Amino acid sequence: MLYALEGKVIEKQNVRIYLDVNGVVFDVLVGPRFSEELDIGSSAKIFVAMITTDEEVMIYGFKTSEEREVFKNLIKLKGIGPNVVFRIMSALELDELLACLETGNIERLSGVKGVGPKRAERIIFEAQGLSGTLKSRKMEGTTRAKAISALVTLGLKEAEAAKLVDQSIKKLGKLAQVEEVIKVALGGNIEDN
């Protein structure tokens, strides 16, 4: 299973990006905003989800791993396929989409071409709890990255910093603030496993 592709953008056709990865060219569908950011000839890292059907293999590309995770979770919902999810994610920023799911904003979600009120209502109903879970994971990942970066700046090796931060987050909980994680990591108040 592919997670991400890194290579050179050799051609663009609207939302299709042709990415050369060490001589192998991948045809990747990306959202219009992300497509505008990618210049022909530039290097890019694209987080991807590969969907295989009887007719074809499609690779959907995303700017961040969080977007990829949201896509992968939404396509699991009953009655909503990858093309509909891709249209929704192309029309809405990630934070706006998560807010729609959290607040039950049927009107905004049904404004996306091909969704409609009934489908929007079903998506929101079936995705209950998803936005909170994803926000929690995003926050945890961001906290972890910032804490590791701070410890490396203070002179620790990255592997050592990562171990201390992971132990701190385990002790404090996933919603701990960066400052708390750093303090516990430096304080040595963690039991070795």
Structural class: alpha+beta
Radius of gyration: 20 Å
The beta-strand count equals: 5
Q: Write down the overall mean pLDDT.
A: 85
Cα separation of the termini:
32 Å
Strand content: 15-25%
| Number of distinct helices | 9
CATH domain fold name of the largest domain: DNA polymerase, domain 1
Summed up, the domain count is: 3
N-to-C SSE string, H for helix and E for strand: EEEHEEHHHHHHHH
Shape: globular
Low-confidence stretches: 189-193
What is the CATH-assigned architecture of the largest domain? Orthogonal Bundle
CATH superfamily of the largest domain: 5' to 3' exonuclease, C-terminal subdomain
Main sheet: strand order = 1-2-3-5-4
Biggest β-sheet description: 5 strands, mixed, barrel
Given this structure, which CATH class of the largest domain is correct? Mainly Alpha
Helix content: 40-55%
Write the layout of secondary structure elements.
Blueprint: E1 4-13, E2 16-21, E3 24-30, H1 32-37, E4 43-52, E5 57-62, H2 65-74, H3 82-91, H4 94-103, H5 106-110, H6 116-126, H7 130-153, H8 158-172, H9 178-187
Parallel strand pairs: 3-5
Antiparallel strand pairs: 1-2, 1-4, 2-3, 4-5
Helix pairs in contact: 4-7, 7-8, 7-9, 8-9
